[in-house]
Write a structure and sequence with these properties.
Length: 126
Amino acid sequence: MVYKILADLMVLFHFLWILFLFFGVFWGIRYKAVRLFHLFGLGFAFFIQLFDKYCPLTHLEVFFRAKQNPATNYSGSFIIYYMEKIIYLQIPQALILILTILLCGFNLFIYLGCWRKRGGTGDNKK
């Protein structure tokens, strides 16, 4: 039961991580630490897509699912089932790479636009 909960939590965390990669720019504009973490996350996402690797969060979820009791009849919850459908989209790897490049480019465009708007001085918030 513990491994099932851990696997479900990993899916939830993975979903939140994906949301952060998509929308973290709006938080990163205001806070330098968030911006650096967000840019690192985007770079890491680009790297794993470029070299056709699996996200470490996926590896953890698979590990926890493998440790879970196989005799259980109900393997997941309603919410986790649909989160997994969103996280693990069944689309070609090349399309995922293209979308990742577009996401990174869009976020860099937003960050550079805000940087220029401030005169290249950055922000005062840490």
